[in-house]
Amino acid sequence: MKADRAVDGIFGFGQHELSVISQLYSLGVSPKTFSHCLKGSDNGGGILVLGEIVEPGLVFTPLVPSQPHYNLILESIAVSGQKLPIDSSLFATSNTQGTIVDSGTTLVYLVDGAYDPFISAIAAAVSPSVRSVVSKGTQCFVTSGRFSSFSV
After folding, report:
1. Is the pLDDT of residue 78 over 90?
2. Domain of 84?
3. Same domain, 37 and 80
4. Is residue 135 scored above 80 in pLDDT?
């Protein structure tokens, strides 16, 4: 699919002129800004904001300009408050790579140089009751109980 015809996500949050955000902006209804925080629970939840939020201490991450998707500059990854030893150049944005925020997926893809340190850090941080297994070439963590929270 050509980048100028793509509609990203399940709500059409892409940067194309036909996206919901672009249409609201062109009509003068809302700034070309949105935020989402989806709460993972049995009851759903979270927040979706079209436009700006005026909240003290709220931090925004600028997007990389001239990209068809919502690329941002990822500087590092931390697990349990510890920055992982990953060369930040692995996250550089180009036409074929970069860090993309996509509301339409729950998946995370990492380049090899970031994947191994990330998985090792997660494995070291999880409870001993969590079993580490590889399923179809993918690292998984299996537990018999439920998590009240999972902070990485």
Report:
1. yes
2. 61-152
3. no
4. yes
- Do 143 and 71 lie in one domain? The reply is yes
Structure tokens at 86: 């990953």
What does the angle CA 94 – CA 73 – CA 111 come to, to the nearest 5 degrees?
Answer: 65
Specify the pLDDT at position 8.
47
Query: What distance lies between CA 137 and its chain's CA centroid?
Result: 22
Taking the model in full, what pTM does it have? 0.66
What torsion do the CA atoms of 25, 30, 33, 35 make, to the nearest 10 degrees? -130
43 in the same domain as 75:
no
Q: Are residues 41 and 73 in the same domain?
A: no
**Residues 144 and 49: beta-carbon distance below 8 Å:** no
- Tokens linked to 19: 């996206």
Residue 32, token pair as written in the block = 């070309």
Query: How many Å separate Cα 76 from the centre of its chain?
Result: 13
